[in-house]
Amino acid sequence: MTDRAAKLQSAGVYQRSTIRDVAARANVSVTTASRALNGTGRMSEETRERVRTVAAELDYRPNSIARGLVQQRSFTLGLLTNDTYGRFTLPLASGLSAAMADRGVSVFLSAGEYEPESLTLNLRAMEEKRVDGLIIAGKRIDRGLPIDLPPLGMPVVYVYAAAPEGAVSFVPDDENAARAAVRHLIGLGRNRIAHITGPEDFKAARLRESGWRSALREAGLAPHGPAVFSAWTEAHGFQTARAMIDAGGVPDAIFCGNDQIARGVIDAFTLAGVRVPQDVAVVGFDNWEVFAQATRPPLTTIDMGLPGLGRSAGLALLDLIDGKPVEPGVRETPCQLVVRESCGANDV
Amino acid sequence: MTDRAAKLQSAGVYQRSTIRDVAARANVSVTTASRALNGTGRMSEETRERVRTVAAELDYRPNSIARGLVQQRSFTLGLLTNDTYGRFTLPLASGLSAAMADRGVSVFLSAGEYEPESLTLNLRAMEEKRVDGLIIAGKRIDRGLPIDLPPLGMPVVYVYAAAPEGAVSFVPDDENAARAAVRHLIGLGRNRIAHITGPEDFKAARLRESGWRSALREAGLAPHGPAVFSAWTEAHGFQTARAMIDAGGVPDAIFCGNDQIARGVIDAFTLAGVRVPQDVAVVGFDNWEVFAQATRPPLTTIDMGLPGLGRSAGLALLDLIDGKPVEPGVRETPCQLVVRESCGANDV
DNA sequence: CTGAAAGCGCTTACAG
DNA sequence: CTGAAAGCGCTTACAG
């Protein structure tokens, strides 16, 4: 035992076995032990097995810091986001870290809202840790982070955020998702379909509106009035539905730009005695369960598949890191319609 | 330039400068460069300055992997959680990572719901990265993670989760927060104060109920009926309020166990023409803004200060890692009442 | 005040 | 099929 090991142990620090311990116990060189454990090189099956058994006995955990130093890789990724709200980031991060863990890669999280200094500090800490690459996630698809990143000298993949020219990025396929939602309504026999959504300066709002229009066009239907753009809030949905009632122009279906708007819409109708889904069908967007499950009736809505988005981004980043060719550009990943009861689809 | 450097550079890999580059350019030994950069050792101010200037010129970033290898520290923490929902984890993680970044420490996130294998894999990846310590976060204060952690051989701090005997853990001070909420109501002249909350088998529900009782007792008031325990949902709040109306026993204030319940309560009253806050004041718990801001009127509620909780836990973990004495046990951190309009406090 | 040397725990040419 | 040696980029006794 070295002096250091003795000192650490007497200080109560748990001392891990190293590859030298494994090699010694298995009567092979460190070289052979390394190769046996990593499945590289050629050696007798017997030797490889013996080394592995010994490693298991010693509960050996390779020190990826040491490995990283020689391989010039840290097996580590950074996830940088300005969404501290959690709505997007956590599902995304969990999909990402699950996929990465399978490959021995861990991910650093740096979440900071509106605090450029904090993001910068986190970024610097990650640079010093020599992360192999970076995932940059936002909270809207047409905005980047609130800081100008310095030249990073490492691969970067963008998710749910605006990306610079030539970068690799992933966003949900808002337009097709919207089209699918509206088609669902059409398939249930609705033909006066309105759209209430978020602010027009959000690209997501524009894409969803466009999906709504094109599904109607394909079916030979006219939009029921213009789309009503405003805040992504319940209040917006509530007031707009209220206004429809007052004007006597209630449609037979409403496609909403998000679940909160849908919630407000349903509340307003319920309050006024308009029945959902009998009189008017409602679809949301996001599948944010605290809303989608809490509406009466439960909300049919679009799930953006955020964990899958995180996973895809991570895998693309890994390819980039490995120097594999990755087509630059914006990848639009498919979303899924989650059918509950707000359209009457399950009553048939 | 070494062969490796040449090869990497020709492969388009950005090559960082090392401490040797800095030392050479500043005409000092690597030893001196290291000491100058770290502020250790004694040397002329002039030398130290010169080294630092050169480091800045070369945009030198110390390789914390190499440093970690010799110092047997990775300057890295793991955050393990089974809350993929995001409600608790992300605010907590952002407070944690901000506080850690200030100290050059980065945090790995592993979030996995109900997937023991995934958590195990992530944990193993973190062990191999030699994280200096672990933060284990849950989604209720009386449950641990769904996996039995193997002996970890590293410091651990628990947050918002059950902790084993003798461990260091942090939870919000539910009982005093509840007491403060109820005192607020009493201070506004309310004296028939009911309590609607989550399932009784949640410790958080029991603590909040107990805070409600003791605030009333201190003020010489009787509880308005027994606490109504059930799900943490809007539906529970809605139905219970509805039942109060039907029974003709509407109190003049309701302290709710969370914001969702409060939301349901307010909706039911509004629907029945009972005015909030004029006829009945409502307080929630969580300060979950999508709910607390969306109720009409906006909700007065308790903020648990999750970023601060994450920060405190991180600092305690750092102390543990540094071998400083840390008192074991459960630390109950103070919460804050956020006054909005559902109690009429701002109308005075 | 400054530096040469050893070493952290691995991987990987290179040699046999 | 196997191993001795060099080296990844730092820090830190030890020596002067």
UniProtKB/TrEMBL annotation, chains A, B:
Q: Name one GO molecular function term.
A: transcription cis-regulatory region binding
Gene3D superfamilies documented for this protein: 3.40.50.2300, lambda repressor-like DNA-binding domains
Q: Which residues form a coiled coil?
A: none
Q: Which UniProt keyword terms apply here?
A: DNA-binding, Transcription, Transcription regulation
Q: Which gene encodes it?
A: rbsR_1
Domain annotation HTH lacI-type: ranges: 17-71
The record lists the organism as Martelella mediterranea DSM 17316
Q: Report which superkingdom the organism of origin falls in.
A: Bacteria
Q: What is this protein called?
A: Ribose operon repressor
Q: Which PANTHER family match?
A: ALANINE RACEMASE, LACI-RELATED TRANSCRIPTIONAL REPRESSOR
